[in-house]
Amino acid sequence: MHIGPFAAAGRFLRGNLHTHSTRSDGLLSPADVCAVYRDAGYDFLSLTDHFMEVYGYPITDIREFQTDGFVTIPGAELHTGTTELGHIWHILAVGLPFDFEPNKPGETGPEIAARAVAAGAFVACAHPAWYGLTEGDVTSLGDIHAIEIYNATSADHNDKPDSVYMLDLLSMRGKCYSACATDDAHFKQERHDAIRGWVQVKAEANEPQAIVDALRAGNYYSSTGPEIYDISLGGPQDATLTVKCSPAERIFLTGFGAKALSTPGHGVTEASFDVSQFRNSPFLRVTVRDAKGGRAWSNPIWLNETTGKYA
Fold it and tell me: Given this model, what pLDDT does residue 234 score?
């Protein structure tokens, strides 16, 4: 039985969900940003300029830069209210309508996140590690879809690109989020923040709404290099989870607490794990790490309480 996006109809599409242009604080024009990702072979891009009064609350329209095989999705990085430690919120919203209203007086982060979800966007908590979000901050955002677990611009800004810990902690609390990797590219010379973190979305068409729907459903995985070709689980009497991927240095299966199994190797492309060893874990997660240190992450795989199987 295939699991998650590997069971969904369609094909995998590579895209970046978090990018900035000269419409806010990025250094490249919208046209040039699109060219970077189109020329790199991406299937789609969401340009998510900072949705702030100082920039005129932009939802940057880049539809004119679409070509056959390269589509654009309207989005923005939302900012309003303050976090527990007093920072202005950073909330990623992909698939916003162009008439999404500017911040309302006194609006909080959770309130604007709820507006974005209601407007049909895929909403993610942006770079928690980068600015020190607490567990309470993330859960206060309510029914958002994802946590940004890798943010490339943070790697060279403050060496805090990785927020996988927040995803795992909240999964251990029984909170269901998917996990996205992004560039958050600003194209500043001192940061190598483009073509470093992306999502592979399983969608039935390379079309904005189909991609947003697939993101909201969690039909994707994230990567900084490796590819995951399949994750499957054996039949009713078979507790074997099998991962197939591009050549890797190690394939991990992790769950509640420190519990983990892994398969090492030089160019290993398949691993099988006995999930019965995770009896006390309500979720599992796959990570593939290649010889260059690149990683690919599945979304959390949750135990179905009715069937007792992971799906």
Answer: 86
Question: b or e along 231-268 (b: 16 or more beta carbons within 10 Å of the residue's beta carbon)?
Answer: bbbeeeeebebbbbbbebbbbbbbbeeeeebeeeeeeb
CATH class held by domain 4-223 = alpha beta
Q: How far is CA 304 from CA 29, 135, 253, 273, in A?
A: 46, 25, 18, 18
In tens, the pLDDT along 145-192 reads: 999 999 999 999 999 999 999 999 999 999 999 999 999 999 987 788
Q: What is the structure's pLDDT at 303? A: 79
Q: Where are the domains of the chain?
A: 4-223, 228-310
In the prediction, which pLDDT does 191 show? 82
CATH code of the domain occupying 228-310: 2.60.40
pLDDT at 200 over 80: yes
> Model's pTM, two decimal places?
0.96
Encode burial over 190-224: b for 16+ CB neighbours within 10 A, e otherwise.
ebebbbbbbbbbbbeebebebbbbbbbbbbbbbbb
The torsion angles phi and psi of 150, rounded to 5 degrees, stand at: -140, 130
- Residue 284, pLDDT > 90, answer yes
